[in-house]
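Subject: Protein record for review, amino acid sequence with backbone structure tokens
How to read it: Take the token row as a discrete description of the fold.
Enclosed: The protein record, placed directly beneath this head.
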Amino acid sequence: MTKRFTFLIVFLILCATIISAQEIKNRHIPEWLIGNWIGTGSGAPGFGTGEFSFSYELDSMVIIRKAHSTYPSRTEGKMLTHDDLLVVYKENDVFCKAHYYDNEGHIIEYTISIPDTGNAVIFTSNAPAGQPIFRLTYIAYANQQVFIEFAISPTQTPAQFRPYVSGFARRKY
């Protein structure tokens, strides 16, 4: 019962955050996101563990996110590794764009939106016509935790986003 209630609360916060952030851009990345994180999640690849960090680099001209996660392979006893790099950069002196690269060869360009509350950071891909849209969402949660969801909309219709992977991370000290 507690898991269902927690999921419901997070789902409602996620929906409200995404709705309020749809047209909000050009806000600063909230400081609560900067740091080292460790977490667990599940989704299409299965249950996984991982860690990631957000840090200012190059005299605070960019924010770099490095992430490493492992998931069970469909082959018994093996684990899959996923590594990625996200480079958040400024336009007009505000962090509002990002480039994503991973060890599977994916490259994604994102636009960043942040709601007035500052409790979320939403990366939405800039996909060409006929390509899926990707959305990566971080929502600040109680006790130095963050909810993370990577969702895909195969039709370029935001209402059709479906979670691919989601989970919680806690600040790593």
